[in-house]
Each structure stands twice: as structure tokens, then as C-alpha cells.
Amino acid sequence: MVKLTEQNREEYAQSVIGAVDAGNIQQFRQLFFELHPQDQLDIYLTMNKEQRKHLYDYLSPDEYAEVFEELNIDEQKHYLQELDQTYAQDVISHMAADDVADFLGEMNESKASAIIEGLEEEDARDIKELLGYEEDTAGAIMTKEFISLRASSTIREVIELLRQEGPDAETIYYLYVTNEKHELVGVVSLRDLITGNPDDLVETAMSSRVVSVKTNEDQENVARLFKKYDFLAVPVVTGNRKLVGIITVDDILDVMEEEATEDLGEFAASRGATDLKISPFTAAKKRAPWIILLMFFGMVTANVIGQFEETLEAVVLLAGFIPLIMDSAGNTGTQSLAVAVRSLALGTLEKKGLGKMVLREFSTGIMLGLMCAVTLMIIIPILHGSVWLAFIVGTSIFLSLSIATVIGTIVPLAINKMKLDPAIASGPFITTVNDIIGLLIYFSIATALLTYL
Prior knowledge:
Elements: H1 6-21, H2 25-32, H3 37-46, H4 49-58, H5 61-70, H6 73-80, H7 85-93, H8 97-105, H9 109-117, H10 121-132, H11 138-141, E1 148-150, H12 155-165, E2 174-178, E3 184-189, H13 190-195, H14 202-205, E4 213-214, H15 219-229, E5 233-237, E6 243-248, H16 249-267, H17 280-307, H18 309-314, H19 322-346, H20 349-352, H21 354-384, H22 387-417, H23 427-448
Parallel strand pairs: 1-2, 4-5
Antiparallel strand pairs: 2-3, 5-6
Helix pairs in contact: 1-2, 3-5, 5-7, 8-10, 15-16, 17-23, 19-22, 19-23, 21-22, 22-23
């Protein structure tokens, strides 16, 4: 397999495309199949429609299926329209069942049904099963291409089985042992089989301590399991321990990317609008609800300032510190929000406990508040010649930052208790809430000490 560097990548790609343009099938296939599937995909995406048309003639459906599987869902929908109906059906029939289910799950029901009807009975049954599981669960992301063994088989028989069925399996590094009821009873690694005595039974090499997940397990919990045990694969079972599929590490990497993108969207109040491929109108439509909601919160902020109009008129200089109070409280709250959401995502909250986490963030807020307060109490008298102004601003910062860390921690935890995504407590939302509280603290202290200014 050719390993492309940045220097020769473009040159090699031009050679592959040149072979297509020249109609040299033999040269194209020789160059193309020397590449890693991802490099094949990169070249495919640079081709124009006419060049892709030739590529479909040069590759068999099962060969093109490996490229098609690497495309994202939107690209698959687009390029499927270029394929002859028979060729397209053959391509889909050579894809892994979980990839087909992901693809069909994004299509309208009539088109998906038409494609499923054209598949072999066993493939169609597997895909319908995967489509029947709730989205974002272990059942929805598992694959049906796995090899199960019987404890009574010999290692020699298993090795022969792997030679026959291994090429079609998702992975053979872990092999799962079932009984006559297809219930999961053990796991054996490829290493154990290779190093074992060929005449020994599988039960002598297998481990009966199998970590598995149920079909309705949330995909984030499955990802945590992979991280905890450094798995390459994990079996998926029903409520009565029947083995129905496996989840591999490449699927979990996709889950982690998906969840990280989702959380990032929640943090920025732009869920579903972070993909650069969507239109400006769609992006605006997805962002608008949060922006409008935050606009109303902004009106509350303006109303808070309006309530202390007399204080501002008496000491206009107080207005100059409004952005400082708002930004400091909002930013500190957002930092605590990130800590809380991350702890929930990684499952570390259960180990440390809710009380310890809130106390830790509150203590952090107190220390941050003290550092900022001391700094301001030194600088403000030098710049503005008022010790009382420095005391008001410094005390306000101290209290605002202390409270902001608690709010930034408790809000996502409360949302999580409501069985909602804690990332929904977005950065802009936490920032706005802490802005309002910070202003109330600032103007309340300023009003109480107005006679000293």
C-alpha cells in the first residue's frame, strides 16, 4: 500500500485521474488499489462527473462500496443519484449493515423501503432490525457482521472458520462465545487462539467475564466503556443476554465526534448550525431561537440598569465598570459550566460527588474573586483617586465571581437530573444570567455606599 506524503499526494492523484481520462483501466486499478481507502476517497472527491462515470465502469460494486462507505451521509445521497439503479443496489448490498442502516435512516421512507426490498433476505432483516432501535443507542450503532463461536468447538475448527468468514466480519480480534440459545457466555481473543493448542476446546481459552452493553444503552455510555477498558470492540446483548451485534472502536470514534460537535453547538447556542455545508438560511433558523431568547434576557439586563438610574446619574463613573463586572461574571460562569459538563460526560462526577464538585468550584470562584478584587483595589485608586470606588468594584467582583461559579456548576447538573443534555445550559445562557446577577450586586453595593463617593 502506498503511503502518500504532502509532496507526492497531488502528483499521485494526477496520475490516477490521468489514467481515468486516458481510459487506461489497468493502470487506474493498479494505482488506485495501492492507496489507503481514505486516499482513494480524497481522489474520488476531486473528480468531475465525467471522470466519476468512468470510475463506476472501472470498479465493481463491491470495490466501489468501500469508497462509498467512507462518504458522509449527504455525499452518499448526492453520489447515489449518479449510479445506475442495478449498480447502486449492488453497492449497497456489499456495505456493512450498520452503514446501510445509517444511510437509509436519513432517507425518506419510500426510497429506503425500495432499497431494502432489493436486498437479500438476511441483509434486509439485519437492516430492519438496526433501523428499529432508538437513535443514539448501542443497538443503533452496532454492526451485525461478527463471528460467534461455540465453547465445544476446537481451536483448529475456529481457525478454519476464520479463514472462511473472517474477511466479511467487522473485526476478528475479539470473538464471542454463545450457547445453543445464542446467549453470550464468553470471549476469546485472536491471540489466545493463535497461541493455543489446536486440539483444545474454545472453552479452555475463553474468558467468561465478558463486559457487554444492552441494545438500549446510550451511545455516550458505550463510549465511556471503551475509554475505561481500552476496548477494540464490545458485544451488544438483549435483556436476556442474547448476542445480537458488536460495536467497534471506529464506530465509537464517530460517536465521540458527533457528541463533541453536539456539545459544542449547545455551548455556543448554535446546535445543528456548526456544519459549514448547511445554507445561511438553515444556520440562521437553527440559531434564531437562542438569539431571540437571549435578546429578551438582554432586555432584563437593561431593565436592571434602568432601576439604578439615579445611582448612575449621581456617579457617572460607575457606568465605566459595567462591562468589567458583566464580562468577568459571565466568563467565570462559563468556565464552571465547561467543568460540570465535562465531568458529566466523562462520568467523573459520580466518583467525586456533587457536593465536592460544587464546593471545589465555589472555592475556585472565591480565589478568583479575591485575586481580581485585590488587583482592582490597587489600580482604581491610582487611576481614579477613589478608595471607596475601588472597594465597591472589588467587592462586587469578588461576590459576582463566587456566585457565578456556583451557578455555572449547578445549572447543568440540574438539567442533567431532568434527563436532558447538560450542554443545553449554553455558554450564552449562563453568561447572561450571571451578567444580571453581577449587575444587581454591583448596583446594590454602589447604591448603599453612594454617600461615600
